[in-house]
Amino acid sequence: MAKLLEVNNLETRFKARSGYLYAVNGVSFSLEKGEMLGVVGESGCGKSVTMMSLIKLLPPSAQITNGTVILDGKDISHATTQEMNYIRGVKVGMIFQDPMTSLNPFVKIGIQLSEGLMYHKKMPKQEAMRRSAEYLDLVGISNSTERLNEYPHQLSGGMRQRVMIAMALLSEPSLVIADEPTTALDVTIQAQIVELVKDLRVKLNTSIIWITHDLSLLAGMVDRIIVMYAGLIVEEASLDEIYKDPRHPYTIGLLHSIPKVDASHGKRLPSIGGAPPNLYVKPTSCPFAPRCAFKVERCEQENPQLRDIPNIGPNSLHRVACWVDVGNRGSRA
Ligand SMILES: Nc1ncnc2c1ncn2[C@@H]1O[C@H](COP(=O)(O)OP(=O)(O)OP(=O)(O)O)[C@@H](O)[C@H]1O
Ligand SMILES: [Mg+2]
């Protein structure tokens, strides 16, 4: 596989009343063509701001203070507004939690779907409409030609999310960022959307970044997982590795809060104790230390960098930012 995306040392902060809120604090990762990456972590850990920083979809109070982003071999860190509009319209598709943040309630679905193709790809209207209907078929919406003439409110929540997915894929982007796309949906519809995206990914060979706070959702879906805490990546590994051999105490905590199928009914799940980190100061020691059962003195003095865990095997990478070796295998022979 070839590299599609390379992110190096990304930092984003928000101007606050007195000082700054440090939302993303030096994030580096890459993505292969056709790969599906899961990004997980509890609310406020910087998942959305990291991914929105890549495409500069940020409010005016946000400042990207460091980092480079290379998409398809091109450094887009200093792209102009016009270049960014093209990137967001053609190269990177987005799916959000609430379809109504992207769909205009007063405009017919067909027009909303086709206008990007007409504007960015200079496609004639008829062709753009035909393509829009094709993509509605692809995402499992029946009577697609009639649907083009409907307004978003005429569809159910699950159907609107399917329209959003069609919209994100329509320009055949090389990357799709899905930010908690199923959180607002009920469990059955959620499972259908997950199946749909898995299926489309195989059909279209699109790279996908799937953001969620629910680690269990990623099972059987993504190739690799990034775990974030306090605007930092604290662990990165293949899906199997994360489940079989988690190395960061925070990842272990997240795994323990996943409900087991055989868990006795009504039993409360353990959640990770303690308060989320204070992001008004830049982390200089391990931000998870105050909540960590494994902490040693060093954790409160120095922030650990991501380090490779050796002997993982060919074509695989497992990185962790922790001073303590908490792996269940200790050392690998
Ligand atoms: N527009 C904003 N202005 C100020 N601070 C913000 C803004 N958007 C996000 N933040 C802060 O940046 C940090 C990271 O937020 P982010 O939205 O990336 O979290 P997240 O991991 O996506 O959480 P969630 O799971 O709730 O979506 C949080 O502390 C959040 O409060
Ligand atoms: Mg978010």
Structural summary, described in words:
The chain has helices at residues 47-54, 81-91, 109-120, 125-138, 144-147, 157-169, 187-204, 239-244, 249-256, and strands at residues 3-16, 19-32, 36-40, 62-71, 74-75, 92-95, 175-179, 207-212, 224-229, 232-238, 307-308, 319-320. It is of the alpha/beta class. Strands 6-7-8-3-9-10-12-11 form an eight-stranded mixed beta sheet. It has a four-stranded antiparallel beta sheet with strand order 2-1-4-5, covered by helices on one side. Bound molecules: adenosine-5'-triphosphate and magnesium ion (MG). Adenosine-5'-triphosphate binds at residues 14, 21, 23, 41, 43-49, 59, 61, 213, 279.
**By CATH's scheme, which homologous superfamily applies?**
P-loop containing nucleotide triphosphate hydrolases
The sequence of SSEs as H and E is EEEHEEHEHHHHEHEEEHHEE
* CATH architecture label name: 3-Layer(aba) Sandwich
- Determine the N-to-C terminus distance: 28 Å
CATH class: Alpha Beta
Spatial sequence of strands, sheet with the most strands: 6-7-8-3-9-10-12-11
> What's the assembly state of these chains?
single chain
* Radius of gyration of CA atoms, rounded to a whole number: 21 Å
How many helix segments?
A: 9
Low-confidence stretches: 329-333
Give the strand content: 15-25%
* Main sheet attributes: strand count, strand direction, barrel closure: 8 strands, mixed
Bound compounds: adenosine-5'-triphosphate, magnesium ion
Whole-number count of domains: 1
Structural class: alpha/beta
Number of E-state strands: 12
Look up the CATH topology. Rossmann fold
